[in-house]
Amino acid sequence: MKTSVAIACTGLGHINRGYESFSLQLANALFEYDEIDVTLFGGGKTSCQVGYKKVWCIKRHSSAARLLALIFRKNGYLIEQFSFSLVLWFWLLRKRPAVLIYSDFLLGVYLWHIRKIVGPKYKLLFSNGAPNWPPFSRMDHVHQLLPHYFSGAVQSGVPPSFMTVIPYGIKYVNFPYGLNKMTLRQTLNLPLNKKIIISVGAINNSHKRMSYVVDEFASIRGFDNYFLILLGEMGVESKEVTSYAEIKLNADDFLITSVAADKVSSYLYAADFFILASLHEGLPRVLPEALGCGLMPIVHDYIVTRETLGEYGIYKDLTRNNQLIEAIAEIESRNIESSVISSHARNTFDWAVLKDKYYNMIQKLADA
Q1: b vs e for 76-102, b when ≥16 Cβ sit within 10 Å of the residue's Cβ?
Q2: The Cα angle at residue 15 between residues 363 and 122, in degrees rounded to 5
Q3: Which pLDDT belongs to residue 178?
Q4: Distance (Å, rounded) from C-alpha 296 to C-alpha 319?
Q5: φ, ψ for residue 229 (rounded to 5)?
Q6: How far apart (Å, rounded) are the C-alpha atoms in residues 226 and 272?
Q7: CA 235, 239, 244, 249 torsion: positive or negative?
C-alpha cells in the first residue's frame, strides 16, 4: 500500500522564494518512488510531474489581504496562511495523507489546530527553513537543514529523535557541454566585456541588504570594468533599492530584475562573482545553487554559511565597508577551478544524493 504524502506551500505559483522551489522539487523527487503517492498543494498556478492542486486563498499582496489586515490588525501573510489552511482542510478530508510537509510555520500551526478539533489525522512534518527555534509543540517531526539547528534544539530540550538533519536538495541544471559564459551572456543580453557580480534574493534592505551590495559595488575602484546584477522577488522595499542604485551607479552598470526560478541558474552561470549580504539565514538555497554554477559565494562569516559552504566560501564581515573588493581579490588568488566547485555542490546537495534521506524520513514518520 502506498504512503499518501501531501506537500503544502501557500506561495507556490505567485511567490518566488526558497520555500516554493524546495516544495516543488521535493514533490518531483518523491514522485520517483512507487511506494509514495504525493500531492502538491499551492496557492497559484504551477506545473510539476506530480498531482498538483491549486488551493484558493487570499494572497498576501492582494487588496483583500491588505483590507483584512487593516481590520484585524494583522499582516497579509497571516491572512494568506489562515485562508489557505481552511480551504486545504477540505482537500485533506478527501486525500487523507499520512504525512503533510510544509515550510511556512504559521500554516502548520493552523493545520495542527484543525487536526486537533476535526481531523483528519495526518502527521505534520515541518521543514524548518526560516529557521524557527524551540519549542516545537505544533508538529510531529522537524526537518532541520544544518547540524547547528539540530544541536541548538537538543540543547533546548528537544529529543534528537524528533528531528532529522538533511540539507536542501537542489535540482542542478546541466548546461550544454562546451557552453561558455560569453554565449550565455549574449542570450541573456548581458555585457560581454565586463566581470559580472550577482546577488540573488528578495530585492530588499531589511533582510537581503541589497543597498549594501550597491554600496560595495560602487566602492570598487575602476568599477566601470564590472557589472552588477540584483536578481530576485520584487516587494514593497524594491523601489527603494532601485532608486538607490540609480543614484549611486550609472544606468549601464547594473540590472535589477526578477525571473522565474528555473532561469536563475542561467544568470549565475553567466556571472563571475556571487555575493549574499544577509546577516542571518536558515540555509539559503541560492548558496548551493551558486556553487553548482562554479561560483564561490562571498558571504557574511557566521555558523550557517560556514556549515553550508565549508572550504568553498569567502567569509567576510559584511557589516563593514570594502569587503567585496577584498573578497574578489581572494577568489582570484585562490584560483579554484569552477568545475571543482560545481562537483562539490552536486556531490553534496543534488537530489540524486539526498532523495533517499528524504524518503526515509517521511516513511519513518508515517510508520510511527
Answers
A1: bbbbbbbbbbeebbebbeebebbbbbb
A2: 25
A3: 65
A4: 20
A5: -120, 125
A6: 10
A7: positive
Q: What is the widest separation between alpha-carbon atoms in the chain?
A: 65
- Cβ atoms of 342 and 294 within 8 Å: the answer is yes
Cα separation of 139 and 112, whole Å?
A: 7
**Residue 252 is placed in which grid cell?**
549601464
Transcribe 5-37 into DSSP letters: EEEEETTTTT--SHHHHHHHHHHHHHTT-TTEE
pLDDT grade for 177, boundaries at 50, 70 and 90: low
Q: Which residues of 299-320 are buried (b: 16+ CB within 10 A; e: fewer)?
A: bbeeebbeebbeebbbbbebee
pLDDT at 47 over 80: no
Alpha-carbon span 146 to 165, nearest angstrom: 6
C-alpha cell at 294: 562554479
Q: CA 29 to CA 292: how far, in whole Å?
A: 18
C-alpha cell at 239: 523601489
